[in-house]
Write a structure and sequence with these properties.
2 copies of one chain form a homodimer. Chain A is of the alpha/beta class. The first copy, chain A, folds into 2 domains: 132 residues, Aspartate Aminotransferase, domain 1, CATH 3.90.1150; 242 residues, 3-Layer(aba) Sandwich (Aspartate Aminotransferase, domain 2). Chain A has 13 helices and 14 strands. A 7-stranded mixed β-sheet of chain A has the order 2-10-9-8-5-3-4, with helices on both faces. In chain A, helix 1 runs antiparallel to helix 9 and helix 11 crosses helix 12. The longest helix of chain A has 21 residues. At the A-B interface, helix 1, helix 3, helix 4 and helix 9 of A face helix 1, helix 3, helix 4 and helix 9 of B.
């Protein structure tokens, strides 16, 4: 029997969400032009900025994470501007789609899916294409399960004096992301991943070099995600130009506070611990990891589907056991499964996910030693903390 | 003592919300790419389309109502296109801002604030400006409290073969709105007014004449609210291109079902009854209505602030009594108060609002017969049903 109400969400969003967040979502609505709401909104923004240790401006859109990505390109890229879109999976592809939508001149640096972006191919592109103005990357590419060495990339991009636009949708809150230190000019993220609440809020951080470009533009063909409008409104009124999703702001406030209660280092360590255990478990079952292991994501793990196993059947089988995991996207459809370990995921969630994975693999006739995955994870958890 | 948790929201959004909606907001999250979510999303869209009796396409954005307004202009208006922006309050002004953002050639028809838009000034504008291509109106202008005769306006605009873009943010769900019958080409609305749930969803209906224009465009400088993308995605996959706010869709589904449980006619009659009682009560207190009474909105009533009374003090005084009403916006700041009667507002809410209003007016030294407003409303309610 599939019971969605008790389903453990081990997908890369929406994520397993804490009961305190559900309680916050059901809090009575307050008017969004009241002093009470302004206080709440400001505190939430400050907590977010503290999380990513930034002194730059940040804004919250009522929208999917994509609204923040849209904002980045709409406000910065003018028709004809050369934009280097680094593509290494489904989500980094989106930057190219948006660049094209706004008439940017997209040139693509393709990185093999499952591999991280290193400095060398970037340097090569910059040397060959002197007129590149912007670079888009996806920090943590959930479609393949890799995390890019963002600090090193940031340094190269800054050395070459390009503007770096970073999708941190699935890294912010689940791994270290320090845009100021790492030379990001724009960082976007969303509420429904490691920020721990339901979908519906997009976040954008805007650095001074990005503002310079925005401020020099004669016009920006964008209204809903127009950054100068958000900046002016916030400066003058301390809230948002358009009605924000009040319950989501209330919930985000609670979730950010919970992060600081746990401690940011503890939270990041926990994510790394869950990721490591997932990799250990997969290997113990004789499964192959898809992503380059040195750059394996700490928020989602991609695992190759063994020959003769149908990924859809595997996922459905786990769903019947109450655990939702994800399949592959784009070219990877049918070839990988993805187990996310984001937000409040803890030891018992990894253990039960692997118990269910073993049960499903067994049912589908995969040849392995039952219990071996869970045993390896137990071992891993008992030896580390 | 101000207790926001028990505050009665008599403001034009967020509105008084039913406990069933709060319960829905706290429902466990489900994955947005699951068959369960697709079913829920499709059903919600169908209920919305049934509410406005349309055969046209409709889409739901994760965003404020403004995201849907943004979409209308971004997808339809090309730089240089002549757009007639009818301005008669704060919300109709927004259409001009968006038109300007996308390079449209805005010409303005100013209607005195508090008055409705009639057919004659439109005809005059059309006769003088043959090259007008689009017309934007706000159906129910909450900043002044009027509702425009949309059916008549729709007929004129269609006769002149212009494209009519309608903001129905505060009419849909609280008053009759029939876009197909009334010749609307685009209708936008949002979740947090008479659709009865928290802010965070924008709705857009797109008629065939709007699609013709969209389909002929070479490019659309918009990504997050790109209509062809939403249309294609829905046709191919039955859901949304970007992560929707799952709890809001769940809540919207519940709220739409509640509307059909009450009966659409009953719902509209109830809104009219509450609006009439509000006007009766205000007049009994010796207060003057701001909006042209023949076109007074059924979802919000605007009342002139009497001389020597400070509107801020009046509003704060009511807030202390647990009732939140709104002040004026733009030019009307300080001059009017606005009492909204949207969504699940019922007799007792109007009665208590006026009891509080009388108490506050008393405190501020306004000369009137205490109890006279409430008495008139009781009379009104007891004579009608």
């Amino acid at each position: 029997m599939i019971d969605n109400d008790t389903m453990l969400l081990m997908i890369p969003g929406p994520v397993k969400t804490h009961p305190r967040i559900y309680a916050a979502m059901a809090r009575p609505l307050i008017g969004h032009r009241t002093p009470e709401f302004k206080k709440l909104y400001n505190e939430t923004l400050e907590l977010f900025k503290k999380l990513i240790d930034t002194k730059n401006d940040a804004f919250i859109f009522t929208g999917s994470s994509t609204s923040a990505m849209d904002s980045a390109i709409a406000n910065l890229v003018q028709p004809g501007d050369k934009v280097l879109n680094v593509i290494q999976g489904k989500f980094s592809e989106r930057w190219q789609d948006i660049t094209n939508a706004y008439g940017g001149d997209s040139i693509v640096l393709n990185i093999e899916w499952g591999k991280a972006l290193k400095e060398e191919p970037l340097v090569e592109m910059f040397d060959k294409n002197k007129d590149i103005k912007f670079v888009t990357i996806c920090h943590n590419e959930t479609s393949t399960g890799i995390i890019n060495p963002a600090e090193k990339i940031g340094k190269v991009v800054r050395d070459y004096e390009k503007i770096l636009i970073v999708d941190g949708v699935t890294s912010v809150g689940g791994d270290y992301v320090y845009p100021d230190k790492w030379n990001f000019d724009i960082l976007v993220t969303g509420s429904q991943k490691c920020l721990g609440i339901p979908p519906g809020l997009g976040f954008i951080m805007v650095g001074p070099r990005a503002w310079e470009i925005i401020n020099e533009r004669e016009s920006i063909h964008s209204y809903y995600v127009n950054l100068p409008l958000y900046k002016q409104w916030f400066a003058e009124r301390g809230d948002t130009p358009f009605t924000p999703s009040v319950p989501l702001i209330i919930a985000q406030n609670v979730s950010l506070k919970m992060m600081f209660e746990e401690g940011i280092d503890n939270r990041m360590k926990r994510h790394r611990r869950m990721a490591k255990a997932t990799r250990v478990g997969a290997k113990a079952l004789g499964l192959q990891l898809f992503a380059e292991e040195e750059y394996a994501s700490n928020t989602v793990t991609s695992i190759k589907v063994p020959p003769k196993i149908n990924s859809k059947e595997l996922i459905n089988s786990m769903k019947e056991l109450g655990i939702l995991i994800a399949g592959g996207q784009g070219n990877l459809r049918g070839n990988i499964i993805r187990i996310a370990h984001m937000n409040v995921v803890q030891e018992k969630d990894i253990l039960v996910t692997f118990s269910a994975l073993e049960t499903a693999l067994n049912k589908l006739g995969f040849d392995f030693k039952p219990g071996s995955g869970v045993a390896a994870i137990e071992q891993e958890f008992s030896q580390t903390s």
